[in-house]
Amino acid sequence: MAEHRSMQRAALLDAARSLLSEGGTEALTFPALAERTGLARSSVYEYFRSRAAVVEELCAVDFPVWAAEVETAMAAVDGAEGKVEAYVRAQLALVGDQRHRAVVAISASELDAGAREKIRAAHGGLVAMIVEALRELGHAEPRLAAMLVQGVVDSAVRRIELGVEEPSVVAEAAVGMVLRGVRG
Questions:
Q1: Do 48 and 54 form a contact (C-beta atoms < 8 A)?
Q2: The whole model's pTM is what?
């Protein structure tokens, strides 16, 4: 029974990811989740009490995987500047990933305070990955510099999602701005 519930919960999360990446937060509804999974709408409520609960669960499941991919990319390079570059490139490489699109859609949605706080905490953990590298590069305020680097990444993500420029062009511009800024 527990295995069945776990499989159903995973199916609901997969459906939520698809709905978010296809249609944004407006598409994430319990009737749509029920339709995608073949469950009765009332059954969806047995797994999640609200849309915010679905969002919180997605963050709890997906954000650590995303962060681990960024961390792995950073660990594969030497030097503080290389780690900062890997941090930017890894995040931008994930833009097309369904988990990433879902997290972006989630972050743009209207959530309750608890869900927003969980997202902020997870995001803070991601930003913390480059604080030491920025300290090594001589920044007096490495945490502030890390937040600013993440701002460039977030802007580049939005630009890639607009589809105006090639993702590689946006990535190169973002990496260039960040590296020039962290050297400065």
A1: yes
A2: 0.78
Burial class (CB in 10 A: 0-12, 13-18, 19+), 162: exposed
CA distance 37 to 103: 20
- CA dihedral sign, ordered 108, 113, 115, 119: positive
DSSP result, 39-74:
--HHHHHHH-SSHHHHHHHHHHHHHHHHHHHHHHHH
Q: 87 and 129 in contact (C-beta within 8 Å)?
A: yes
pLDDT in tens, 55-92: 888 878 888 888 899 999 999 999 999 999 999 999 99
The HSE-up count of residue 113 (CA atoms within 13 Å, CB side) is: 0
Instruction: State the Cα angle at 88 between 86 and 93, rounded to 5°.
Output: 90
d(CA 127, CA 148): 10
Q: Mean pLDDT of residues grouped by 10 in the chain (184 residues)?
A: 87 90 82 94 91 82 87 97 96 77 59 70 82 94 94 91 90 95 74
